[in-house]
Amino acid sequence: MGSKNKLKRFRENETFHNVLQPKRADLVDAIFPFKGKWGADFFKNNNPLVLELGCGKGEYTVGLAKRYPHKNFIGIDIKGARFWRGAKTAIEDQLPNVAFIRAQIELIEHLFAENEVAEIWITFPDPQIKYKRTKHRLTNDAFLKRYKHILNDTGVVHLKTDSEFMHGYTLGLLHGRGHEVQYANHDVYHQEGSPDEVTGIQTFYETTYLEKNKAITYIRFKIN
Question: What is the pTM of this model?
Answer without folding.
Answer: 0.94
